[in-house]
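One example given next:
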Amino acid sequence: MSSSNFKSLGLSKWLVESLSAMKITQPTEIQKHCIPEILKGRDCIGGAKTGSGKTIAFAGPMLTRWSEDPCGMFGIVLTPTRELAMQIAEQFTALGASMNIRVALVVGGESIVKQALELQNKPHFIIATPGRLAHHIMSSGDDTVGGLKRVKYLVLDEADFMLTDTFASDLATCIGALPPKTKRQTLLFTATMTDQVKALQNAPSIEGRPPVYSYQVESTDKVAIPATLGTEYILVPEHVKEAYLYQLLTCEEYAEASAIIFVNRTTAAEVLRRTLFHLGVRVASLHSQMPQQERTNALQRFRANAARVLIATDVASRGLDIPIVELVVNYDIPSDPDTYIHRSGRTARAGRHGDAISFVTERDISRIEAIEERINKKMTECDKVHDTAVIRKALTKVTKAKRESLMEMEKANFGERKKLKKDRNMNSKTSRA
């Protein structure tokens, strides 16, 4: 199997040429195993870490079959975040450009009316977040979403996350509008094999259909993080975390490095973005309270290195392919060790070195122990920032910048939108009840 190329895996000639034009000529492990089986008509569960070519593993066979009969709504890809949906839609559009492919991106934060018109136009592929697609299914007429009844493929990308309670009701709405399991192929791709995903592997076969094909690239779980990733921690008193972060980002080793700083809450992301901006750091942020256009712009600025630091909530930790990241900082420690793995996966990709540094307060000890057990590796103490240096150099300056930031946020009513939305939801629930 090692000598296989995309043609020998069964992809259409035009698609092989398309891949070749994008300088993609050698199939990865997950592509070699999944593409032929999906082309045989089997449902498929594929496990491989981010950056291993999962999108082409499902897009390749779907595009091949579509080009043999390019009818209306042919395939649907559901994914947890808008940014990931945009990335997948870009890949589908680029791969199918020579074939006049129509790809609709159906995500929150964009015009519902414009999306409804696109759906009426029967796009060949729909790349969507479950919440927004469910909204169209519930509130748009048959002329908009009726075509979903003939879809040949359903893909759940980042399936481990999609099968959690967060998405349960929206996912049920989406799947309810599709043909039954016997009339479509279902493809699940994930970086983490959770119990929910494993349960689907062992589901009984559907009559008249070949059994589910499941392939996991060795070590998806055994080696949760790459060998090229340095894992370190800094013990930090809670009230001076910003000063430590500023010192770390401006120390000799990381003064030029591109970095993603992960926080657990949107308010923390906004405070940090403004504080670092006042301190002269080229910074952008990515969180759910930003309008979609701002989120897109922030990502583009970071990819183009116009911003060297991206402050992000976990909306950015899954699946995004940003090849330049040299440093990931867990400013807040996640409660789920798998989230740590997804965050750290933004750096040390494709054999390059990268560092993941965690800020540990006295409250985080048990979380760090759980992460160390999950990654089967002890973190080492980071020696790049010292108490005396922080206190002497940074504290006064950073405290002043943070105070200014908080005043600005108060003036701008930051968080008001979220509160209004919450109130609106509560009101509509009460009126429905």
About this structure: The two ends are 59 Å apart (CA to CA). Confidence is low (pLDDT under 50) at residues 426-433. The chain has two domains: 6-216, 229-416.
